[in-house]
User: Which sequence fits this backbone?
């Protein structure tokens, strides 16, 4: 079992594993062996008395850690798409060991010294710019991890990290507990007018699981939101809304939350103070400035101005949406003064009255094979490559593999598509790296390989006949999105693994290539080629397409302002707010000021939305929430280059612009800054106009 030949996790070398052969028993021996090998390699590299070079230091270190990383990547992948109890157990057993290894690398000061020595050596100037960037990124990460702090500050730094992790965990536990604790039981069906059947079924099931009669609603979004959206009963909406927006706050008990013990106010204050302290220790003026180190945005004021300009441009459209909504509610719903708990309901009614179309009917036009054919066609035409089926071993019969060939017929990448939901497969959609591009020591190229994973409904077989699976337009967008990440990974031409493809790309720019691809899903010339009704084979009718387009931007002014309130609040908390001299109530006061400046509707007195803002207090988005809008601006503006081409050529699927995009954005990967890549493609800095135009805000 331990021998290399019989363990498929050890025997695949630079190739790809036979997923079919891998079982839970292979994980522990393989990972233990590779961990040992990687640790030994670190020792050997450190023991080498000669001054470090790329060949003697970075290359062997990278090879050993890549081998571990790839085997572990296969185990993680299978854990996500083909989970079984023994597999999960074996994986869970090794996870702490693997995590500890990576953490120890990042904190190894001897390694840090070697990196610094290469940077200072005469060799550095002779390295490729991609290799230089690999070294610079590593140095940056060591510094951000506290490697350069004087010894007496190191324990405090570690303490800060630990306490932050603890507080973040508490924050999300409180949100979860406050969400779980609440339940609203309704026993009269007449109180539930307007709710769709499937929502009622789910509420009945919830009631049964809690041994209640009738229907039960919780504050989990899939239970909460349909009530806001569809329930005619205004007081029901109000009751649930108030419970929702006071979760994890000092108002908890008043609205039936049970206890104020889940109040997050003090935690937020302490977290902000610790982040500020961390930033100052590392020599930054505040946490926002620190967080920008690995990002595309360069200065705190650049992000601040970006958000302000965006808000100013969007505000009139938010006002227009609000006026439309309030007057509709007065005339058609008899609601004189629109309250926060009326908004989703009134919006849904207004949307129905303006753009009603059946999602179910629309779905019939998107059989998955036809969608994939259309998607591949676009990629081939844009980037001058060819996509062909390939027959690599996979982990399930539904999974297909493909190869990407360049114009001269050479294979430059492979990818897998795992399209359907099934038991043992994690939900959602993602692209992951199965192997990265790099130049091997013999001069040959290791080509990149990607996993594209979705969770579309599987095909249905009735009387032995399997119907071609159809997916929703949202699913089509998801497929394009993940494929956009995939192209970033696969069409790279960089030889240094640390910055090839998506590696080393600043994280506020990572979504550029994925969101870029989504735009094609809203083009008539693309959709009419990519659709065929599951029964009649007819393409999508133009009038249905027109309705889709109108519905796409429905109330986008209000939605955009809301996102800008979140982003601005996050930014100010991490750049201007002095948590050390503040009280918990000051955070609430700031949230109100931010809302009043940006939004067109006042923040309700009872709203404590900031107390459940997990993205910034428990997720990885502290001083990073702006990046959603930031990346949207980049992708929309990049796409606008194709719209401009279409004005003279008549088509957005243009190979000249496509090739330029491929060379300047995709091929270079993380080997230079995203700002440089964008400018090289577009010939100028990013502008927000295209995003505003696409969103009906201009
Ligand atoms: Zn994405």
Assistant:
């Amino acid at each position: 079992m331990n021998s290399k030949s019989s363990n498929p996790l050890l025997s695949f070398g630079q190739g790809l594993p036979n997923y079919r052969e891998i079982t839970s028993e292979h994980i522990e021996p393989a990972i233990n062996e590779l961990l040992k090998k990687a640790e030994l390699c670190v020792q050997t590299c450190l023991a080498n008395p000669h001054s470090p070079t790329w060949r003697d230091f970075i290359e062997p270190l990278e090879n050993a850690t890549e081998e571990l990383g790839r085997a572990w990547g296969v185990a993680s992948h299978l854990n996500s798409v083909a989970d079984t109890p023994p597999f999960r157990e074996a994986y869970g057993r090794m996870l702490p060991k693997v995590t500890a290894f990576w953490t120890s690398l990042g904190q190894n000061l001897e390694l840090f010294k070697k990196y610094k020595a290469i940077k200072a050596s005469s060799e550095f100037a002779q390295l490729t710019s991609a290799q230089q960037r690999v070294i610079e990124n590593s140095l940056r990460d060591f510094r951000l991890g506290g490697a350069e702090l004087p010894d007496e500050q190191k324990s405090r730094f570690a303490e800060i990290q630990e306490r932050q992790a603890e507080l973040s965990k508490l924050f999300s536990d409180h949100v979860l507990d406050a969400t779980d604790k609440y339940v609203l039981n309704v026993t009269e069906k007449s109180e539930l007018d307007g709710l769709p059947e499937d929502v009622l079924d789910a509420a009945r099931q919830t009631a049964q699981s809690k041994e209640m009669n009738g229907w039960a609603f919780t504050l989990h979004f899939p239970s909460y939101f349909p009530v806001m959206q569809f329930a005619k009963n205004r007081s029901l909406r109000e009751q649930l809304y108030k419970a929702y927006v006071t979760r994890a706050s000092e108002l908890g008990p008043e609205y039936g939350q049970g206890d104020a013990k889940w109040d997050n106010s003090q935690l937020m204050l302490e977290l902000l103070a610790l982040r500020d302290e961390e930033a100052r220790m590392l020599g930054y003026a505040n946490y926002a400035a620190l967080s920008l180190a690995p990002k595309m945005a360069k200065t705190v004021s650049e992000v601040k101005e970006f958000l302000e300009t965006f808000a100013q441009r969007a505000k009139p459209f938010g006002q227009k949406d609000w006026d439309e909504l309030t007057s509709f509610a007065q005339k058609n719903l008899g609601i004189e003064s629109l309250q926060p708990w009326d908004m989703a309901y009134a919006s849904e009614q207004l949307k129905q009255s303006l753009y009603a179309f059946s999602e179910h009917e629309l779905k019939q036009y998107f059989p998955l094979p036809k969608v994939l054919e259309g998607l591949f066609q676009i990629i081939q035409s844009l980037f001058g490559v060819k996509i062909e089926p390939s027959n690599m071993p996979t982990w399930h019969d539904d999974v297909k593999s493909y190869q990407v060939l360049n114009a001269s017929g050479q294979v430059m990448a492979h990818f897998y598509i795992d399209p359907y939901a099934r038991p043992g497969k994690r939900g959602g959609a993602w692209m992951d790296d199965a192997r990265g591009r790099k130049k091997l020591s013999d001069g040959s190229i290791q080509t990149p390989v990607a996993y594209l994973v979705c969770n579309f409904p599987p095909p249905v077989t009735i009387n032995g006949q399997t119907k071609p699976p159809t997916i929703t337009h949202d699913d089509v967008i998801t497929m394009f999105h993940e494929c956009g990440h995939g192209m970033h990974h696969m069409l790279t031409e960089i030889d240094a693994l640390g910055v090839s493809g998506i590696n080393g790309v600043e994280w506020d720019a990572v979504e550029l290539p994925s969101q870029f691809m989504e735009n094609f899903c809203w083009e008539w010339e693309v959709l009419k080629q990519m659709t065929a009704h599951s029964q009649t084979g007819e393409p999508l009718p133009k009038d249905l397409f027109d309705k889709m387009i109108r519905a796409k931007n429905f109330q986008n002014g209000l939605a955009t302002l809301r996102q800008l309130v979140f982003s601005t609040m996050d930014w100010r908390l991490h750049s201007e707010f002095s948590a050390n001299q503040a009280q918990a109530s000051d955070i609430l006061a700031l949230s109100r000021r931010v809302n009043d400046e940006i939004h067109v509707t006042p923040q309700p007195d009872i709203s404590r939305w900031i107390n459940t803002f997990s993205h910034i207090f428990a997720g990885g988005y502290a001083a990073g929430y702006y990046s959603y809008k930031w990346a949207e601006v980049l992708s929309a503006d990049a796409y606008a280059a194709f719209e401009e081409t279409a004005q003279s050529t008549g088509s957005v699927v243009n190979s000249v612009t496509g090739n330029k995009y491929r060379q300047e954005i995709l091929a270079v990967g993380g080997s230079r800054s995203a700002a440089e890549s964008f400018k090289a493609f577009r010939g100028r800095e990013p502008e927000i106009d295209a995003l505003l135009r696409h969103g009906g805000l201009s």
